[in-house]
Amino acid sequence: MFNVFVKSFLSLLSFSLIFFVFNVYAERAEFVIELKSHLFFPSEINIPAHKKVKLIIHNLDNSVEEFDSFALNREKVIFPGQRAVIFIGPLPPGRYDFFGEYHPNSAKGVIVIGTSGDKNVN
Amino acid sequence: MLINTIILFLQDALPIFIVFALLLLRTTYFLTENDCNSKAIIKHSIWLMSFVASSLIAIFLVFILIMNMSDIGESFSYTGLELLFSAGYILVYLSIVGLIINDISNHSNTISYHKNNYLSLVLSFVLLTFIITLNGANFVIYFTSYWAQADQFESLSVGVILGSGICISIAILFYFILFYFNDNIYPYTSLGFLLLFGSGQLIKVSHLLEQVDILASSEILWNSNYFLAENSEIGQLFSVLFGYDATPSMIQLSIYFMAIVLPFLIIKIIHSIRFFQTNVETKRIGAQL
Hints:
The structure holds 2 protein chains of 2 kinds.
Chain A: H1 2-17, E1 29-36, E2 39-41, E3 44-47, E4 53-59, E5 65-69, E6 74-78, E7 83-88, E8 94-100, E9 108-113
Chain B: H1 2-30, H2 44-78, H3 80-106, H4 110-147, H5 153-184, H6 189-211, H7 233-242, H8 250-288
């Protein structure tokens, strides 16, 4: 009986430790994307590999848009005139597509993760 | 646009239909296994009324949420929406865990099962309300944005009809397949699927918290998009049913594993406590004799 309690307690404790993998706050490189006339500006962004970066998407249109990316596992609704903040990474080198879910034919972009360098850092 | 509408139905409407099917199955299957003459049992009609009531309350909450979504999104340094949805999904998972623990740990004890039926009623109510609210909000925003585009009316209408048909068909198939499995293979199969669904909700929580840099991100462990693309229709279906993620990280895998193990741990603790209490009671009665 006591062994069951000890084992159960240790299992629950290890489960709860999962929730302590919170981020240590650190300055992240920022990249700004503007959404105008259902187009992303810039439509291609270069960011460094294996680093977490901050994307700020500013919706300058009068309609709602949803920033969506299956490759990045990110989606966020952005209301007219408002900003949204999304963190992406760390990711290996490659091309990661994103799009506006409500205007998928026009609002498209790609995040290019290179092997080195900090291009397009704001 | 048509494909987007169908994928939207799979992402946001299908979870609601799946939860309805699982709760309906739980109501029709488990309650008939018990003594129906007991006065403590909650009738099927009350369960159905609670489902309707939770749906109506959820629809009200959806509109409240949509009206304030813009302000919530800008709160807490632009993390308000993620925090709110994360809390909602965690509540969904905890309701599911509560239902599973109640069904499995009390099923052999008719009297306490009947008492705990009221707890199950409340948990089902909370589960349905939150799943409709969280998924319904995104759904409504999508449609109000699309309906504003007059040139998309035709593809949107076709998408709605197709998407609704797909969701209803999947839910009905799911119900009858799991009913068969419950009867012929293992009685708690449907509860297993409910647990997998709940664990999938915690994967959504991990995505949301990583998105706003609250949860640490780590490198992905594998990429199974070549095998089953996450953005395909089947991938979206598996994502809804089991929380399928083609590019999981170690943290997500750990969360998923722990989410599945936790109810069984709690059930073991409850059984151990009951066994201990029974032993103590038996010894006490033996000593009196």
